[in-house]
Amino acid sequence: MSIRKHIPNTITCLSLLSGCVASVMALHGNLLSALIWIIIAAVFDFCDGFAARLLKAYSPMGKELDSLSDMVSFGFAPGMVVYWLLGEASTALPFGSLNTYIPYLAFVIPTFSGLRLAKFNIDERQTTSFIGLPVPAHALFWASVGYSVLPVIHANEGLFVLVTVILAFITSLLLVSEIPMFSLKVKSLAWKGNELRYILIACAIIFVALWGFLGISGTILLYIVLSIFNKKG
Prior knowledge:
This is CDP-alcohol phosphatidyltransferase family protein. The protein is mainly α and 233 residues long. Helix content is 69%, strand content 2%. The chain has helices at residues 7-27, 31-55, 60-90, 108-122, 135-148, 157-175, 195-211, 214-232, and strands at residues 130-131, 180-181.
């Protein structure tokens, strides 16, 4: 029993470690590796909760550790992806020394991720579903977008920076929005009650097959749309 209770926290630490590696990869401009390590972190993040439920090994420490891990893996790491992208594109802009500060706009991502995680910890409405975009989904969106747009960074640096900054602010606001979003956790494999989850999984497979890693971003956008549709229904 003493060993079993540490298994979920160990998995959470592996997620945290993956997020640290992803951050380093992003700062070195290796966005493919950053994406892969964020995906690995997301897998560990899913497994730690599953392990806690399976082993009945819940603990206050585990809850706090999970949030701290998420802040690094799904807040700081995607922020560093966008930081590198803006730094790469802003060097060609005609703003002189101001170009140096443009990449700092990427810090809106870890800032709002922290707000989202703090809100989640005290919001009793989010026990079975989410209010606002979950940070793992947000991180996967930016990691996959970051890697996929590498070939077009220098096609039009000004437009690239503008679109990236605006999109970063919009998606960051989604983190703390009041939009209900369904959880991917399932209690049974039955179709009834899991319709949106199965639709999302099927579309994710199709998107990735068609568009590669960019399909991950498409899946996250579909997740947002389905959640809004579910709210209306």
